[in-house]
Design goal:
The protein is an all-alpha fold. The chain has helices at 3-12, 54-57, 61-67, 73-84, 92-96, 101-107, 109-129, 134-142, 144-180, 188-206, 208-211, 220-244, 261-274, 281-286, 293-322, 339-378, 386-405, 410-436, 442-472; strands at 27-28, 35-36, 41-42, 48-49. It is 69% helix and 2% strand. The strands form two sheets. The chain has a two-stranded antiparallel sheet. The chain has a two-stranded antiparallel ribbon with strand order 3-4. Helix 7 packs antiparallel against helix 15. The relative contact order is 0.17.
């Protein structure tokens, strides 16, 4: 999540339109990110000077890339890890149960390496285009039409991710309610209705009010806290395995057979969905205090492999605890009355509740620009009118809520989000690599160009495999 971008937005929102320079670049980024605007003062000589507002100066393309950012390498590692680690790990043990632990350990590594390499390619593209958002980079390299296509992909990705977030909130809320009220005696049909009511009310009360404000900078610190909430979940699953679970109740080793194409597709989709920092990384890179290939390589390696370690430990101990009986949301496999498990579920809810409004902010910002751009430009206004603004937010929220309530299951939602995420993990980076390969030396340029083609082909094969598994392989 682009927390610096989110915080900077609050300084710029109420600035008059005419005070902004013609070189201003709009910053919109996903995976839990915001939008930022900034200004520079321009003297008569034509030289761009830093503005008196420190935040304004460092929230623009020119300010960040010319004068340097404020983020240290270790802080960038933390921010990037926070952008990567999300709710997908709740479904990773379930997606892995058809295989063995070796598949879990080695199956994630190709995506980890690809994600690390892509961050390095993005840094090269930023230096070439002098842009700090992925959409602006693609517009600079390919034109406005291609940028509009990127916007559509971004909206779909944000929407599917928001639905998956609501699925997590639903699971945790229903389980927490059962701690206070026993609903197990109800018939299955009635219980299903109650689950939907609990989920809808919880989302309306906890998520929707946070989507209304025009600024999302107030979510910065809860989002940082969500990182430590995820670490608590890791500590919880490990201590439960070592200190609570009796040895004779520990499941046998997972099987390494009887899996089909759909299991492979589901596992791959969840992994791809896990390692998403593609849209976020340009703003993180541009805000580095000492921007260099070596420093950014350090950030990319530590963030991706650090996230890999956390994901793997969570899935390994969940599988060692429950084996093939693990739930789609592995936290639901723990005792409903366990206080430590309840705290883990509450931590996850806090994490998700603070993440949803940021993605909603990003998607609705793009939707507003697409739908009302002409009207707003005629009114010389950089902001949507409040009725239009709140209508977009409300329609987005209600649509995602309805999709969550009638979704077939968490796995299907995560897989769909993974399919959409695969465009930003494989296809779009591949296209970018083919475009900027001339920025490298002759040999390295050929390697980059070949890898770009390879990434696009892999993405195509993955999508075809998904379609085939849905159409021709019956559900279990």
């Amino acid at each position: 999540m682009i927390y610096e971008s989110i915080r900077n937005d609050s300084h710029e929102t109420n600035m008059p339109r005419e005070s902004k320079s013609s070189d201003e670049e709009r910053s919109i980024s996903s995976s839990g990110s915001g939008a930022s605007y900034g200004t520079h003062s321009i003297e008569e000589s034509g030289h761009i000077m830093p503005s008196t507002n420190y935040n304004n100066d460092y929230s623009t393309t020119i300010g960040k890339l010319k004068y340097g950012g404020r983020t240290s390498v270790m802080a960038a590692v933390f921010i990037t890890m926070n952008a990567i680690i999300g709710s997908a790990y709740l479904n990773l043990p379930y997606a892995t149960k058809a295989f063995n632990l070796a598949t879990l350990l080695w199956g994630q590594l190709p995506i980890v390496v690809i994600s690390t390499f892509i961050l390095l390619v993005l840094a090269k593209a930023i230096e070439k285009t002098q842009k700090i958002t992925f959409q602006d980079i693609m517009e600079s390299l390919f034109g406005l039409r291609f940028k509009k296509a990127i916007d559509i992909i971004l909206i779909c990705y944000c929407f599917s991710t928001c639905v998956s977030y609501m699925m997590v909130v639903k699971d945790q809320a229903v389980t927490l309610i059962q701690w206070f009220v026993n609903l197990e005696h109800l018939p299955a049909a009635h219980l299903n209705i109650w689950d939907k009511i609990i989920a809808a009310v919880t989302c309306l009360v906890t998520i929707y009010p946070l989507c209304i404000p025009r600024r999302v900078n107030f979510l910065y610190y809860p989002s940082v806290a969500s990182f430590f909430a995820n670490l608590y979940v890791l500590v919880f699953v490990m201590q439960h395995y070592f200190f609570v679970l009796e040895e004779e109740h520990r499941p046998v080793n997972l099987r390494a057979e009887n899996f089909d194409l759909s299991d492979i597709v589901n596992f791959t989709a969840v992994i791809i969905f896990q390692f998403q920092s593609f849209y976020s990384s340009p703003a993180i890179y541009s805000d580095l205090r000492k921007r260099s290939t070596a420093n950014w390589l350090t950030v990319a390696v530590l963030a991706n492999f650090g996230s890999y370690i956390i994901y793997t430990l969570l899935a390994v101990f969940a599988l060692l605890t429950f084996g093939e009986q693990v739930d789609e949301d592995f936290l639901n496999s723990y005792d409903v009355k366990d206080p430590l498990a309840i705290l883990a579920r509450a931590s996850i809810m806090v994490s998700i509740v603070s993440a949803y409004p940021i993605l909603c902010f990003v998607a609705c910002k793009v939707i507003g620009d697409i739908v009302f751009s002409k009207d707003e430009s005629q009114n010389n206004s950089s902001r949507l009118s409040f009725p239009r603004y709140i209508s977009i937010k409300t329609i987005f929220f209600l649509t995602s809520l309805l999709c969550m309530l009638f979704a077939p299951g968490m796995t299907q939602v995560f897989v769909l989000a993974g399919i959409l995420a695969s465009f930003s993990t494989l296809a779009l980076p591949g296209i970018l690599m083919m475009r900027i390969h001339t920025e490298y030396s002759l040999i390295n340029g050929k390697i980059v160009f070949s890898l770009g083609i390879f990434f696009i082909l892999v993405n195509l094969v993955f999508i075809v495999g998904y379609i085939y598994s849905v159409v021709f392989i019956p559900a279990n």
